[in-house]
Specification:
mainly beta, Immunoglobulin-like, 7 helices, globular
């Protein structure tokens, strides 16, 4: 609301000055009116090393003040709504009494993206102690074990520059009650609160029951065919999601069950910690002094020309000669990737097993040379480094060209190297992990005739008056554009009528399946890797997707939006409610 008020007012010169040109809200068909800023300064590649393994966030034995199902405003919590179905879902036979986790959103004053750039402040998350990191701590969670994650907001209240020191943390795309979903209007700090909260606070308790969707039909903790695996948390503050993520407010949340166990001796026996490694990709741009920059006001945003991997530019990951599960996440704000595993000269590409798209294991593994990721899409791949002798250098290379924030261009070799793998040791024990052909079965879905009889809604993502709109309207945080009975199902038609940009669409709360894809009104085949359950659906130029989704177990407010973060911040979002 602050950004929107700013844009409606007279003070529009700062964004224009930053871009070196007048700020012009462009028409639907026009090209971008503000040129790209100068290129980022040169960096020094392959001198920073990522840790050999991640360290999961430890859960806390207790929290002070003690969490309650209702907002503990007297103890410093913001004015959230009560946790839904809390007593039921934390009962011993369901998801058990919650484990406690604690994180702090704060500034790290001395982050080094690359040795060629100065140490500089970023925002991120930390555990109960230590400096903030970007990405933040990785949470390992399990179905059937609920948790409370207390998130403190310690960002500097006197902050200047891009970003805003309020937060609303969204766990993308967990099946959680709306008060813990990170609704964009639920932002808070110690002194400010969003329009959908009752008041500010120093922290917020998020209730993650870690149940499968469908508990009211299947009983227990729901249907395991609805399981998620690779999730991520990130700030979702209304109008400021892009700059707050560029500053660093994101991290991973990995969810395990009896099939995807996190143990190479049980279940599917997929590569597991410490050989289960999340990788977070972001495009960023730096000024002539090597300082991070972003134009949060212009509706075209800023396309990054440097790619960070886990917060570092051109880092090295040392790997053992064995199989690794690499969880790839495109954290935005605007760049798409098509990633290949290559040799040092980028002339030879190697295959890998593609096992999960977005947060979900595929029904069967795929073997391929590449994985394409729109903003917020994830892809889990398994690479067998035992094929390579010690000393081998391999690279993840992005071959997808992109000239502006509107979407990708052509695929062109050799591409840009973004991450170096150095095979530097033998594994200390025999590799007993596997990659089965069959992974997670699909849930039951209605027949084609039943699908045809379901209610339908049509959502058109386009440009209107220089702003990004849905059905020719801007986001209104207080007004639901759909009110849907709990327990029902619908087909939503997602439409991109333009040929100038791409929209990676995210619907909060439940995964969908794509049942139809059209380009220029003509049916086309759904790619194999998109035939499982998804939570981000890339709408290409002149494209239309029909998706099936359910609305189960919880009531309240949720959103659908374009996950090109600059489009989202410039109001390409709708609120919808389960009633």
């Amino acid at each position: 609301m602050k950004r929107r008020s700013f844009l409606k007012g007279a003070v529009v010169t700062s964004a224009a000055a930053a871009a070196g040109a007048p700020l012009i809200l462009t028409s639907r068909k026009s090209a971008a009116q503000v040129p790209l800023p100068p290129p980022s300064p040169a960096t020094t590649p392959w001198v920073q090393y990522l840790p050999n393994e991640i360290t999961p966030l430890e859960h806390s034995s207790s929290l002070t003040p003690t969490p309650t199902p209702w907002a503990n405003t007297a103890g410093g919590e913001c004015g959230r709504a009560d946790h839904q179905r809390y007593a039921e879902l934390t009962a011993p036979g369901i998801a058990k009494a919650p484990e406690f986790y604690e994180m702090h959103a704060k500034e790290n004053p001395s982050w080094v993206f690359n040795p060629a750039y100065p140490a500089q402040p970023v925002w991120g998350f930390s555990g109960p102690t230590g400096e903030a990191t970007s990405p933040g701590p990785t949470i390992f969670a399990r179905y059937g074990q609920s948790l409370i994650c207390r998130i403190h907001n310690e960002l500097p209240a006197n902050h200047v520059g891009f970003g805003t020191p309020e937060i609303s943390v969204h766990l993308h795309n967990h099946h959680v009650p709306s008060e813990s979903d990170g609704f964009p209007g639920d932002f808070f700090s110690a002194t400010k609160s969003g329009p959908t909260l009752a008041g500010p606070g120093q922290f917020k308790d998020h209730f993650y029951p870690n149940i499968y969707a469908g508990i009211d039909v299947y009983g227990g903790i729901g249907d395991s065919r609805e399981a998620l695996g690779t999730l991520w948390y990130h700030d979702h503050t209304m109008d400021f999601t892009a700059p707050n993520l560029v500053k660093g407010l994101a991290g991973f949340y990995l969810l395990f069950d009896h099939l995807d166990t996190g143990d190479e001796q049980t279940g599917l026996r997929l590569p597991s910690h410490p050989y289960d490694y999340p990788l977070y990709f972001q495009d960023k741009r730096f000024d002539s002094q090597g300082m991070l920059t972003y134009d949060q006001f212009h509706p075209e945003g800023t396309l990054g020309d440097k790619i960070t991997v886990n917060g570092k530019i051109e880092p090295v990951l040392r790997v053992a000669r064995r199989k690794y599960r690499l969880r790839l996440l495109n954290g935005g704000p605007s760049r798409f990737y098509e990633l290949y595993l290559t040799n040092k000269s980028a002339t030879t590409t190697y295959t890998f097993h593609y096992i999960a798209n977005d947060g979900n294991l595929l029904p069967t593994r795929l073997t391929q040379f590449k994985v394409r990721l729109g903003v917020a899409e994830r892809g889990d791949i398994v690479v067998d480094f035992s094929k390579f002798p010690i000393g081998t250098e391999l690279y993840l290379v992005n071959r997808l060209e992109q000239a502006d924030t509107r979407g990708p261009g052509n695929v062109k070799a050799p591409g840009t190297k973004v991450l170096k793998f150095l095979v530097d040791r033998n594994a200390p024990a025999p590799d007993q992990s596997q990659v089965p052909t069959a992974l997670r079965p699909m849930p039951d879905y209605p027949s084609a005739a039943q699908m045809a009889a379901l209610p339908r809604r049509r959502w058109v993502f386009a440009r209107s008056g220089g702003m990004w709109t849905v059905n020719n309207q801007l986001f209104d945080v207080n007004v639901p554009r759909a009110s849907i009975p709990m327990g029902s199902a619908e087909v939503w038609e997602l439409v991109n009528p333009e040929n100038g940009w791409f929209h990676p669409i995210h619907i909060h709360f439940e995964e969908v399946i794509i049942i139809k894809k059209l380009v220029n009104g003509v049916n086309v085949a759904i790619p194999t890797h998109e035939r499982g359950r998804k939570d981000v659906y890339v709408l290409g130029k002149d494209e239309e997707l029909h998706v099936f989704l359910r609305f189960r177990n919880f009531r309240g407010k949720y959103v659908m939006h374009c996950h090109n973060l600059i489009h989202e911040d410039h109001a390409m979002m709708i609120r919808w409610d389960i009633v």
